[in-house]
Design a protein that fits this description.
Layout lengths: L18 E8 L4 E6 L8 E6 L6 E2 L6 E6 L5 E7 L6 E6 L4 E6 L4 H5 L5 E7 L6 E7 L12 E4 L18 H7 L3 E6 L8 H4 L9 H6 L1
Parallel strand pairs: 11-12
Antiparallel strand pairs: 1-2, 2-3, 3-4, 5-6, 6-7, 7-8, 9-10, 10-12
Amino acid sequence: LYSMEGRQLRQLTDGAWEVRGVLGIDARTDRVYYLSSEVSPLETHLFSIRLNGKDQTRLTGEAGSHSISLSPSRQYFVDSFSTSTTPQSRVLRTVKGAEYAVLREPDRSVLNEYEILPTEVVKIKAADGRTELYGSLTRPAGFQRGRKYPAIVVVYGGPGVQSITNTFRGLSMEQMFAHRGYVVWQLDNRGTIGRGHLFESAVNRSLGTGELADQK
């Protein structure tokens, strides 16, 4: 929080996670509304906190990745969210997070028409033995343990991207590969977003070293 003269007054949030965006400030209630990855690096949720740095409140209860449209009056917000297994819903909520109206139910037509193979989220340690990394594994249709399958590794190791999230992907390229008999693996190495500044800055002026080490 800064004064209008540019003087820093106080820090409102802290932790090894990321504020994904500030949506607005309500001067009447002295609260700021923001999106963050505090609940899980794989999810985005809406929080509010008072301008004195106290009374932090989570406003989105359902698991998943939430995108929010906050009303100008700061009395309501539209919550659009999905999970890896459930298509997007859209719900109108009061500013305290209570459901007011369902604007759109999940469209399950893709799930009803196609076989969407499950994607397993895997948590592993980096080579340093301390840093936790998240990966995803999609097995081919009819997978049999003990049998060898060709593998496709999907890589984007650069900054500004997060690939492993709890969000619905539907008819993705990974699904096409898996239905063609491939195991599909993907990993968010150090340098990707969602984990805070220290995690992301690992590639600063050092592209191609830490990312490769994590992928290997």
